[in-house]
Write a structure and sequence with these properties.
It contains 6 helices and 10 strands. By secondary structure, it is α+β, with helices and mostly antiparallel strands. It folds into 2 domains: about 150 residues, no CATH class; about 80 residues.
């Protein structure tokens, strides 16, 4: 796991509440549970330790509440006091005073009706422990970046680009340098070179896969052919994703 990667994690069956506060404002509240297994991804479940958010809270890091991880639909912020994060023995309580916007009113409606019972959050991992079985990871410390309400589908189903980034790592492409370039508002010449080198590496990977298919075509099973084709398609999607970033 890369300490610099941005990730998301979700828990099912979260107790979400929607209410009208004393000031007449609409409020939603949920909890990120400690010592409970997350929705599994790639065969691995994650557990949030009681120490995971201590540094974020101590440093008074700005955390925002979002509508389904959408940066353009902010529901609240610790900076303005409209998002309050509170630690207790059970987990991190997230209480958000909603703005008077259409998407915030939508959030209040679907939560109050009980249509959505999943809560999620985005973070950067700092410290963690992997269990011997390789299927469980305990997050000891994370940098919390956002909490999300109204998440209809749990865990990583919306983080396709993260899957692509992990695929790059397997092919000796420097993900950290690439991520730094892609996150910039304005690309410098060095950033463009990094992205172009990545595109070239992906093209070489596609060529290698194609050559392997042609070489082994005489004794390759249909299942192996399908696997090679899928690899080629996935790599092409990575290339298109990065070319789109370069065009911006």
């Amino acid at each position: 796991m890369n300490k610099h990667e941005k990730r998301k994690i979700s828990f099912n069956s979260i107790e979400l509440r929607a209410e009208i506060g004393a000031t007449g404002k609409k409020i939603v509240e949920g909890i990120i549970p400690y010592d409970s297994k997350s929705v599994p991804i790639w065969g691995t479940t994650e557990i949030i330790s009681k120490t995971a958010f201590k540094k974020t809270l101590a440093d008074k890091t700005v955390v925002r509440a979002l509508y389904n991880h959408d940066d353009n639909r902010v529901l609240g912020s610790t900076e303005s006091g409209t998002l309050v994060l509170e630690n207790n023995e059970e987990g991190l309580i997230c209480r958000c005073e909603l703005p008077n916007t259409s998407y915030a009113n939508d959030a209040y409606e679907v939560i109050s009706r009980g249509d959505v019972k999943t809560m999620s959050f985005g973070f950067k991992p700092v410290k963690w422990i992997d269990e011997i079985d390789g299927k469980t990871r305990t997050l000891k410390e994370v940098k919390l970046m956002e909490v999300s309400f109204c998440v209809p589908f749990p865990a990583y189903e919306e983080t396709t680009s993260l899957t692509y980034m992990r695929g790059l790592e397997k092919n000796n492409i420097n993900i950290e340098v690439l991520n730094d370039a892609l996150e910039k508002d304005e690309l410098q010449d060095a950033d463009k070179l990094t992205i172009q080198d990545t595109i070239n590496s992906l093209r070489n990977l596609i060529s290698e896969e194609q050559e392997a298919v042609e070489t082994e075509q005489g004794n390759t099973t249909q299942e192996q052919v399908n696997t090679s084709v899928e690899t080629k398609e996935d790599t092409t999607q990575i290339e298109l994703l990065i070319e789109a970033e370069l065009a911006i």
